[in-house]
């Protein structure tokens, strides 16, 4: 936590976060808006009437944007905490360690599938585990070898794929898992179609073209892993904007 907020408690920390978030908004179009960038010159302010109108108007819009973004920032703090834990573990393991760990986890699931499922179920779970292992390696490489852009664009979606895919495939052959995963997946699908996808006829097209049963559950979660990964990555990025590493 930033030294300037530790002595003022929760209220001071929230004020600091809101200030940083608003300064970042202002910095999109105006120079020297962050407190640590002003130096001896201080924060930049416009000198013309039109400039002041634009500056204050942008500031007012930013106040509303900050009010909407700050709850997401709090989720971003939590997501960043856990992703850093995972990143730290992955860095210590290295790419070989990530492969071995993924093979251990999903190999165990595949071995269980060999005992419990049909040959088709065993092969399907094994293939899903293989995809998850490849996705885990790609998540590691794009997260450690690239910058912020590649991490958000690639690493998080690959990580979500490694997490989501094998359990859903296993549920296709396990009545116990299917009773848990499929009803919740169906409820989520209905909500997505009735809310964020209820535009430009997207939900109508999906309902006409696809029936949520069988392998389409796996396809659904495979498709969700990309926007879910992007959303998670953007939350972590937002948290980094408000409180960079070391604060």
UniProtKB/TrEMBL annotation:
Q: Which organism is it from?
A: Halorussus limi
> Keywords of this protein's UniProt record, alphabetized?
Membrane, Transmembrane, Transmembrane helix
Q: What is this protein called?
A: Uncharacterized protein
Q: Where are the transmembrane segments?
A: 58-81, 93-115, 121-141, 153-173, 218-242
